[in-house]
Amino acid sequence: MISNSYLLGLYGISADSSSLIGASATPAKAKKTQPTAPWANSSAATAPKASDLVRAALAGRKVIDESAVDLDMAGASPDYRKLFAIYQGLNTLSALADRADDKGLTKLEADQLNRRFSAGLEEVSKYLQTAKFEDLKVVQGVSKTSVKTGYAQEKAPASFVAKPIHEGALDAPVAAFAGDVKFAMSVKSATGTVSVSMDLSEMGDTTRTLDNVVAYMNGKLEAAGVASRMGREMIKVEPKTIKSGDKTITLPAGPDQWALKVWGSSGETVSYQAVDTSDAVYVTQNVGGTTGSSQLLKFQTDGGAAPTPQQGVADPFWVEGRVGRSELPPGVESVRDSVTTADGSVWVLADLKAGEANQPIKGTRDVALMKYDSAGNLVQTKLLGAASKANGFSLAAAADGRIAVAGSVTGALEPGKSGADAAVADSFVTVFDSSGQELWTQRRGAKAADEATQVGFGADGLVYVAGRSKSAMPGTMALGGWDSYVQTFSQTAPNRKGVVTAINMSTQQFGTGGDDSIQAMTVSGADLFTAGVENGRAVVRRFTLDASGVPTLAATRDLGSASGKIAGISVENGRVVLTGETSNPALDLGSPTQAHAGGTDVFVAAFSTDLQDTGADRLTYFGGAADDTAADVEVRNGKVWITGSNRDEGATKTDPTRAYLARLDLATGAVESNQTWRADGDQAKPASLSIVSGGASVLDRLGLPQGEVMQADSKLLTVATSARVGDQFSITPASGGRALTVTIEAKDTLDTLAKKISVASGRQLEAKIVSDLKSNPPTQRLQITPAANREGAVITAGPAGKDALAALGLTPGLISKTATSDKKTIGLNLPNTLNLNDAASIKAANDALAAALTAVRSGYRALAPSTGTITNTQTNKGSSTVYQQTQLANYQAALSRLVG
Predict the structure, then answer these.
(1) H helix runs in 602-670, sequence order
(2) How far is CA 328 from CA 294, 334, 378, in A?
(3) Minimal CA–CA distance to 471: which of 497, 451, 491, 495?
(4) What is the pTM of this model?
(5) DSSP labels for 320-371?
(6) What is the pLDDT of residues 438-462, one digit of tens each?
(7) In angstroms, rounded to a whole number, what is the distance separating the alpha carbons of residues 577 and 606?
(8) Cis status of the peptide bond prior to 777, with omega within 30 of 0
């Protein structure tokens, strides 16, 4: 006679469950209820070694292969085979990551591992999208009943808080109001613009406290018939903590700080105009200390009519002439460049290692273009949107407000395009309009690594890009080592959809058989000049531009051993001005007007634009006996402005580093001013310099910007986030069905995206904009929930290099009312952006894979049949799973036939 317990065992059901079907056989010894898991101790002897997994993966074998899974229990649910196949794939990816973390790997092997890892991750992602489970739901992301975008857009501001200008008691005079303080406040409405003159001398003997000055200004505004008003705002000062050896010391918060506040009125736009101005010089710097932060500093030049600068509130390391200091966002890894535009704004180029909470980045490093107003307020941040990592090296501004960024990118930039090798850096150039909306991007890389180090605008909207490459750029020949190159791009007219593109008009590659680089470039009329280091020599090249703007090499000048680097090149009063740093005391430019002082000194050279030695060359060295660096330079009205750093003689790299801002007379080489300062951690390292004519005024000490305040952020996702046109994600109904793709378009906002999500989910999801009024300033996010009386849907990340979810701050996964689901949902939380690019990325990949493997084990436990009365362990109800119900029905039929 056939034992009931034997048949029950075949179907993974314990003998105690026989009461469900009326059988009365004698209980037998418990049988195997689940196939042996590949991570079980009993499987260790036959499990493949990590080295074998790596070898097989690099040989091209699939990381997920259901046919390679052996189940040691007859009649086991097919879910086990799928679950073990996923485990197999994750284990292979983990082996690849572990191998990439080994020391002594060649670059070739590291690149191979990275490429195979990316391909394997994509294979896992595609498998999860198509695998059909009976008693489980396994998703690449997470399982939630509601999700919100990490990206948040600020609501239209109704007020503006300036920078702090006073600390302490409110009845005390405010130092910022002392002296000759006058400016204009304009209020624009549908009926016209009203300009209100503010001159604190009209207050007479009234003490210039914050409340008294606010009352004076509001009286003027009321008399002018406008609704906007001024006010004050307390800025809460938090206690600070510092480390002293092994101890953490908390410092008191200090006195309250106060700032001016602008209360806007519906339909009115407020702006400020300075009466007396001076030129302003902006310096960006990276500082040391515990935070390793970056800053934007503002200096007022001598001359002009603006009142004498004062030290502001909470402005450590202040130096005479400085009128402002702004901290850059904490995710900034390093500042690269800066430019000013006609409206007085400052655009800062930086590399980001992390986005802000409301504006996440896709990969491990991205390029940020940040716009600051004249008071140092961050107005806008535009992210490049690299899928893996990117570096920005150069920034340029055109007269029409366009901004160009050049640098290098590894992995995808334009959706789905990763270059010839996704693990090798390529050059890129991107041009934005004045609002920060991308106009076009060009990525033209060699087979080996290359990068764009300089960018500039020419006549008729042409864009010139210079850089270096380890192999031949498209259409050229390699010379050996790193070669220099110059490219020309022309912007096309908008097509019917208003889309503009660019075409590459020319590429020239040049240099020596050694390592060459271009470190500075400028366009002057019909000439283009480059300067750099070629095989250790400082070399300047002149190209003539034909009628279409294509450059042709016309002259070259070798200035001798570089022994340093080039900081900038420009043309002033018909002469080439070259600036840099060198330890060579005898550059080939004639006798210097100021001799080399030792170590590394800054040099300023002026010579003929035809690059010939005319006997009128001028060379000046600037610096002390120790090392002096030149980070950036700008020539304006016969004056050479330079910023950099210096150390004491004999100092090491870890010793204090001071920053400086110097002005030299180009004609004589005389040093007219030289301001030096320290920074946190005694490590001040300036990165860039830019000048604004008339950019400094009394408004700086009041914390108010010149121009419009309360500027609304762009609502376009392609401007406000790192999403790019063509980025995607897909949505599949929770009950199964065809996945529909959601693609980001140029005009998409949170509103239009909400509609796309609803349609793509087959009305399974509800997407709506929700406000967070507790945040400061108030923000809005997109919230996604299951629609009423619907099962919900699975949101899946887009393909590698085209994923929109990371840019929006959304995690892929199932969105449903999981509490009522009959199936256990396993979320692997495995981002598509994982890679093996560097040590930090490898660690992140290993951590994510370890968590995903744990989730798979959880899925295995969820599939385990119950003992006693069969209960669905996922719902805690007295019913079996779908698979168990089917097997029980089969068993009942077989038993009926056996007993007749």
Answers:
(1) none
(2) 5, 10, 8
(3) 451
(4) 0.82
(5) TTEEEEEEPPTTEEEEEEEEE-TTS-EEEEEEESS-BTTB--SSSBEEEEEE
(6) 999 999 888 999 999 999 999 888 9
(7) 5
(8) yes
